[in-house]
Design goal:
This protein has 180 residues and is of the alpha/beta class. 20% of the residues lie in helices and 29% in strands.
Length: 180
């Protein structure tokens, strides 16, 4: 059974993007050595990438090639996608998507992007683990790491580690299906 994972960066004040959806505050850390936690190493174990429509639209603004050509990409949306940048599938029903993802046995699943879709999975007990990279930035507002929905949980800390340039990696297990 595939693990459903989160891997996301947030500012110290709990935001993942500025009010105008900019990630400039995060891009200045590009190329930082994360060692065994490096994004490229993480991506090698991922077979399926799942993202919401807002994240997909953000990626589409980048003039570069589709970055997930080696993974199956699923976009959760109710709107059609015109001229996709790369091969992808769309889904509109989260509950049936979770059942589909749970049946996979060819690699792990990454919940890419903002906290809204990750929260929908957490509310359903379907996000197994999450790695949160807390960056030493205060951006003063914007998109929160997770939207306030009233959902409550007590994730189990698997590890915490200070990285270079003041970044901290927090790794949590969220569901009972997860073991480490």
């Amino acid at each position: 059974m595939a693990k459903i994972l989160g891997y996301i960066a947030a500012s110290v004040d709990g935001f993942i993007a500025t009010p105008d959806d900019s990630l400039d505050w995060l891009f200045k850390y590009e190329g930082m050595d994360l060692g065994e936690d490096d994004y490229r190493l993480f991506l090698k174990r991922i077979r399926t990438v799942v993202m919401g429509r807002r994240t997909y639209d953000f990626i589409m603004q980048d003039p570069g090639p589709w970055p997930y050509g080696e993974q199956r990409a699923i976009i959760v949306t109710s709107r059609p996608i015109i001229a996709p940048k790369g091969p992808l599938e769309t889904r509109g029903d989260i509950d049936s998507l979770i059942a589909e993802l749970r049946s996979l046995d060819d690699g792990d699943v990454w919940m890419l992007g903002g906290g809204q879709l990750q929260m929908a999975f957490m509310e359903r007990g379907a996000l197994d683990e999450i790695e949160i990279y807390v960056m030493p930035e205060l951006i003063g507002g914007g998109r929160p790491l997770f939207p306030p929905t009233g959902f409550r949980a007590s994730p189990r800390l698997l590890s915490a580690r200070a990285l270079e340039r003041g970044c901290v990696r927090l790794h949590y297990a969220l569901s009972t299906a997860s073991t480490d």
